[in-house]
Amino acid sequence: MTKAYIALGSNLGDARGHVLSAFDALAHLSGTRLDARSHLYLTPPWGVLEQPPFINAVARVDTTLPPHALLDALLAIERAAGRVRDGERWGPRTLDLDILHMDGVALQDERLTLPHPRIRDRAFVLMPLNDLAPDLELAGQGRVAALLASLDTTGLERLP
Questions:
Q1: Which residues pair with 158 in a beta bridge?
Q2: Cis omega (within 30 of 0) on the bond before 66?
Q3: In which element (H, E) is residue 73 found?
Q4: Is 96 labeled as catalytic in the residue annotation?
Q5: pTM
Q6: CATH H-level, domain 2-158: superfamily
Q7: Is 79 a catalytic residue?
Q8: Active-site position among 98, 120, 122, 131
């Protein structure tokens, strides 16, 4: 089993419901066990600013799936939630799932880079990741808690 951290985000329709359903879907992936989930956070949009705020979270899973098979499973969960990938980056979405890190895996190809290359810039990812793994060292980026401390977290709100 390999420990993996997955970012979850939604800002269309029932965003909270989409994220909670995605946690359930992750718990039912073949060869995968949902180990922990972060708090939910209401976060301002990033990239394209003219869109609704997001609900963001992070899941920690133990999985036997190799990285690309896990990616394919996440894309299937997104499609089941109504996600259409039309090439627009950072726009509104029913569900977005990203592999942030897999223990012992360093990878860079046309489909996947691990650890995720932009974690260090994204408070909306680091805040929930910090709930689960503040001491996690991300190769080439730093420790989660230190990365989070270096960012502006204004506008991020932990939800009950």
A1: 41
A2: no
A3: helix 67-80
A4: yes
A5: 0.95
A6: 7,8-Dihydro-6-hydroxymethylpterin-pyrophosphokinase HPPK (3.30.70.560)
A7: no
A8: 98
